[in-house]
TrEMBL record:
Binding annotation for substrate: E31, H32, T33, D34, Y221
Recorded GO MF terms: galactokinase activity
Record's protein name: Galactokinase
Domain of life: Bacteria
Site entry: Transition state stabilizer: R25
Pathway participation: Carbohydrate metabolism; galactose metabolism
One Pfam family hit: GHMP_kinases_C
Gene: galK
Family as reported in the entry's similarity comment: Belongs to the GHMP kinase family. GalK subfamily.
Function: Catalyzes the transfer of the gamma-phosphate of ATP to D-galactose to form alpha-D-galactose-1-phosphate (Gal-1-P).
PROSITE patterns the record matches: GALACTOKINASE, GHMP_KINASES_ATP
Organism: Nocardiopsis codii
Domain (Galactokinase N-terminal) ranges: 7-55
């Protein structure tokens, strides 16, 4: 935090008025369910973005990132959809959604620093948008409730950046608490903090960053989203969340592709409910097979995995993991592995060997510790 404040001072010649932090996330289970009004079970990582900011009297904005060269500068009125590219589109979009929503905003100096890797499916962009929405609103006199920040940050992605995401990532960043997974009904936004501490059960939840870059804005995600909406329409339900008779729905659908997309969403919602029930009863080990079933569904029915991801899952399972799956939107990114603490070393070694054999770049592996959500820190 003091690093961010000193970097801010060095860049802008004065100190920040405030500092906010927002974490990246892992989704334990419940993938591609959020834009189908379904259930999700994410938690926040200790990896986070920190944003230092202060108001400017002249209606100008200046953005800097410690992870990017140069400075982005514009006037507030120039920040409209389509006008800003690269990382600056996210803070620009945060200011645009606030203005568009009728909240008072003015000029802003902003410097961000992040430990959330970008393009790894760990929600680096939700961390950025949540932090900047909170910072800009607060500095201009509005303390937004977390559910407002979530919706506004989602709008940044949907209407400014052009990524039709749901509310999983923003909710995880805003609402997570240490030692818990966040069970959320994305239709009602009702939440439950479910205790989740693998180490207390002699287990570890590893994150394997496959380093296969994921690019969700590039169409595949939007295709899945569209297929789900079309299937819901042809089944006569508001959202796939409302499908109660899966065999009946499958026989009513016109083609194999939509049948597979629907089967994934409906079975994944059921797996979230099963995982929550197991966590509530303290049986963390039994969540393993649900993770693996989720992966198979995402690989075969939803088709969002890539060879690096499948290799990590297969190698981890072969080395004795209790369960493993891709996490996040897919097409690259990270795998999570639930494994007994005594099998961690073998598991990591087996995954690394499998990567070497296939000629893939060395994956990064770290342990996921359920951590606190976004907040003002100074
Ligand atoms: C991405 C999206 F941003 C989320 O809204 C969610 O749909 C996820 O992919 C898949 O579960 O992270």
């Amino acid at each position: 935090m003091s690093d961010v404040s000193s970097a801010f001072r060095a860049a802008f010649g004065h100190g920040p008025e405030g500092v906010w932090t927002a974490p990246g996330r892992i989704n334990l289970i419940g993938e591609h369910t959020d834009y189908n009004d379904g259930f999700v079970l994410p938690f926040a990582l200790p990896l986070a973005l920190t944003a230092a900011a202060s108001r400017r009297p002249d209606g100008a904005v200046r953005f800097r990132s410690r992870q990017a060269a140069g400075e982005f500068g514009a006037s507030l009125s120039e920040l409209v959809p389509g006008a800003v590219e690269g990382w600056a589109a996210y803070p620009a979009g945060a200011l645009w959604v606030l203005r568009d929503g009728g909240y008072p905003v003015g000029g802003l100096d902003l410097l961000v620093d992040s430990t959330v890797p970008t393009g790894a499916g760990l929600s680096s962009s939700a961390a950025l948008t949540c932090a900047v929405v909170m910072a800009a609103a607060s500095l201009h006199g509005t303390e937004l409730a977390p559910d407002r920040v979530i919706r506004l940050a989602q709008r940044v992605e949907n209407d400014f950046v052009g990524m039709p995401c749901g509310i999983l990532d923003q909710s995880a960043s805003m609402l997570s608490t240490e030692g818990h997974a966040l069970f959320m009904d994305t239709r009602t936004m009702e939440t439950e903090q479910v205790p989740f501490a693998p180490d207390a059960h002699g287990l570890s939840l590893l994150v394997v960053d496959t380093r296969a870059p994921h690019r969700l804005v590039e169409g595949h995600y939007a295709d899945r989203h569209r297929a789900c909406k079309e299937a819901a329409r042809s089944l006569g339900v508001a959202a796939l969340r409302d499908v109660t008779d899966l065999p009946g729905a499958l026989s009513a659908l016109p083609d194999d592709l939509s049948r597979r997309r629907v089967r994934h969403v409906v079975t994944e919602n059921a797996r979230v409910l099963d995982a929550v029930a197991l966590l509530r009863s303290g049986d963390v080990r039994a969540v393993g097979p649900l993770l693996t079933a989720s992966h198979a569904s995402l690989r075969d029915d939803y088709e969002v995995t890539v060879p690096e991801v499948d290799t990590a899952v297969d190698a981890a399972l072969a080395a004795g993991a209790l369960g493993a799956r891709i996490t996040g939107g897919g097409f690259g990114g990270c795998v999570i592995v639930l494994v007994g603490a005594d099998a961690v070393r073998t598991c990591v070694k087996t995954v690394r060997e499998a990567y070497r054999e296939r000629g893939f770049a060395e994956p990064a592996v770290f342990e996921a510790v359920p951590s606190a959500g976004a907040r003002r820190v100074a």
